[in-house]
Amino acid sequence: MFNKVESTVNLVKLEEKILSYWKENNxxxxxxxxxxxxxxxxxxxxxxxxxxxxxxxxxxxxxxxxIFPRYKTMKGFYVPRKAGWDTHGLPVEIExxxxxxxxxxxxxxxxxxxxxxxxxxxxxxKYEKHWKLMTDRIGFWIDMDNAYFTFKxxxxxxxxxxxxxxxxxxxxxxxxxxVPYCPRCGTALSSHEVAQGYKDVEDYSIVVKFPLVNQVNTxxxxxxxxxxxxxxxxxxxxxxxxxxxxxxxxxxxxxxxFVKDLFDNLFNSEETKKNYKxxxxxxxxxxxxxxxxPIYKYTNDENAFKIIEGDFVSxxxxxxxxxxxxxxxxxxxxxxxxxNLPVVQMVDEEGKFKVEVEGYANLAxxxxxxxxxxxxxxxxxxxxxxxxxxxxxxxxxxEKRLIYYAKKSWYIRTSSIKKQLIEANKEIxxxxxxxxxxxxxxxxxxxxxxxxxxxxxxxxxxxxxEDENGxxxxxxxxxxxxxxxxxxxxxxxxxKPFVDKISFKCKECGKIMKRTPEVIDVWFDSGAMxxxxxxxxxxxxxxxxxxFPADFICEAIDQTRGWFYTMLTISTILFxxxxxxxxxCLGLINDEYGQKMSKSRGNVVKPWDILNTQGADAxxxxxxxVVSPWxxxxxxxxxxxxxxxxxxxxxxxxxxxxxxxxxIDNFNPYDYELDVNFRPEIDRW
Length: 685
Known about the structure:
The protein has about 675 residues and is an alpha/beta fold. It is built from 24 helices and 26 strands.
């Protein structure tokens, strides 16, 4: 006889009953033990950042990470699943800053780095409990009791070892470059971080009149979309092969120089054009070397304030003459080095003008734009002004506007291994397939060097020590540091400020070597997980090779420029191949109207609001069936109700109907045999 089935069912209580059964009877552990001697299917957990309570988008990735290992287990594979936690970096720091009511690096340092980092560690462990509860509740089978944590010494030591290999391959270097920089967080960002934070913004586009030194009443028309950078102007660039016009206003005799192709853009009415006559046409190279009078002058360098040539100067927008500020632009810095231009850095690391900038001291650059434009206009040097909408990078964590800023940073020379990265990608199966040579392939084709370091606190310290003579040494293990320092460091916390206290004498010159103060990109931590989760190569050597590379990984599509990229890069440097074979890219979740979910919009759905009322099965089935995994999903609780009504309750009622008539007919399934091959597909499952 079959147990009677009630016509009504509380799905949430039913799930909780099943979860209790699994836990009390160690069902997950038994499923692993059953297949322990079978062929292994390797799964890597992309470590979530435990800096806050999980959202419904985290449920999406975790249920897809669950279903494939379950399927492979059913097929007889041994599928160990080790959880992991991404515990470092700005996400955690910003959460602690909010708790403390502070908003700057100065305030962190006044509190003390030791205390601040202690709070960061506690914050991570606090939210780990929330994540564990959610993971259990949605039925995601994964070993959370033996999870890896990126803040643990064992993990950091492996990261140090990897960096030592990169150093020995001469791929790790320090340079003074233009970097994407967050003034609020006070640190540079890598290209893959920048790629995650673009927004459409409205900005000023202005054309400024720069007077020529040797020609009265004659001006270069110079274009910029960042008026605040004019304070640091040191040159203007032209396209040497383009033709430029010198025109004269018939009434006031003012003369202007600009690229010929943009005449109609700058003088866009026939009435306006009638007021001007063309004096002559000049090829760009003939303008090179001409001196002009700057609007703002903060250098007396004799190389400054002249026309130079730049192959990046466009003849299809602006004026064909671009203002150059090497402190705030990559092209500007490159051409500045060619022409030996000064780097005039009039903005501090908080994104404010320095005290010596007259009229704008301590003013945030975004607040200064309108004042600078007004000042230029009052001097009679503003030719025209407009506004335009364009895509601009914002900090992926604090959501403040980035600037491009000249700073010293450490880099990994990933541009030199571009071919190897592209070759390694050829061996990966991407789902959907177009990502392989599309979004991800294009990213690899345009690879630039990885900006590795961050001027922050809670992160893996860069293991480079240096002395006052410029000698540098990369440390690859605790043992190596012990031998150099002559100290027992087994109980040393490898974080700031403790590791910064360890110094030793340089073997070359005898001067004291101290650690450089930076920490590394948190994405390097997560990209190192195939190795660092096992503390390889210091232990678990066989275990590592048994679990490398992964057969399957799965995250949201934005990780093509995050975890997917950093994992591929690190494993290619170490082993010249990818650390994963198959990757499923998941589409992002929007609200029911197609808007991106965000706290500011108030449209974020909390998973427990669904789990406590509609249940995990309905939520899981919705994610599995609503659209293809890689397509975006417009999420609403109404859609979950549809799943319950159309699928779960239909299934329940079907079984209830079966039980009624099976009991009436005294049906016993063990009395019948039907070869598996002849069973319907659903029964074979």
